[in-house]
Design brief:
- With 144 residues, this protein is mostly helical.
- The chain has one domain (3-140).
- 82% of the residues lie in helices and 0% in strands.
- It has helices spanning 3-10, 19-54, 61-73, 75-94, 98-101, 104-140.
- The radius of gyration is 19 Å and the shape is elongated.
- Keywords: Membrane, Transmembrane, Transmembrane helix.
Length: 144
C-alpha cells in the first residue's frame, strides 16, 4: 500500500474505517516512516552543520544555515518527546484483539490519537520545509 494513501486513511474518521484497520495501517506507516525519516534527518542536519562550519564567520549565511539545521533537527525531539506517547498508545491499540478495539472508548481514543498525530505531523513537515527552504535561500542568495 502506498504510504501517502495509508497516511490519509489513518486520518479518516473511524466511522469509515474500523479501529482494527486504521491502527494497523498507522503501525505500518509509522514503522516505514521511522526507518526513512531518522536517517534523512541526520543527513540533512549533518549537511547544514558542514555548511555552518565552512561558511566564514562574518557571513550572515552562517546564521541562516544554523537556523536551517536547527529547524530540521527539532523534528527529532518533537517526535520523541511530544509525539511518542500517542504513537506508542496507537501501536498498543493496534495489537489489541479486534473485539477490544471495537469498544466505543477505545475507538474514540484511537480516533483522537490519529487526529492529534496528523496535526503533529503537519508541524514536523513545517519544521522540515522551513529548514530546507531557508537553507536553499542561503545557498542561492549570497550574504543577504
Amino acid at each position: 500500500m502506498d504510504s501517502v494513501f495509508a497516511a490519509k486513511l489513518t486520518s479518516i474518521s473511524s466511522a469509515f474505517i474500523p479501529t482494527s484497520v486504521s491502527t494497523a495501517i498507522f503501525r505500518g506507516v509509522y514503522t516505514r516512516g521511522a526507518a526513512l525519516a531518522v536517517p534523512l534527518s541526520a543527513i540533512s542536519v549533518a549537511a547544514t552543520a558542514y555548511l555552518v562550519y565552512i561558511t566564514p564567520a562574518e557571513s550572515r549565511n552562517k546564521v541562516l544555515y544554523a537556523v536551517s539545521g536547527a529547524s530540521t533537527a527539532a523534528m527529532i525531539p518533537l517526535t520523541r518527546i511530544v509525539m511518542m506517547p500517542g504513537i506508542k498508545r496507537l501501536i498498543s491499540i493496534s495489537h489489541m484483539e479486534t473485539g477490544m478495539q471495537g469498544k466505543p472508548a477505545i475507538s474514540s481514543e484511537a480516533l483522537s490519537l490519529l487526529a492529534t498525530w496528523s496535526g503533529q505531523n503537519w508541524v514536523r513537515f513545517g519544521l522540515s520545509a522551513f529548514g530546507g527552504l531557508l537553507g536553499l535561500y542561503a545557498a542561492i542568495v549570497q550574504d543577504v
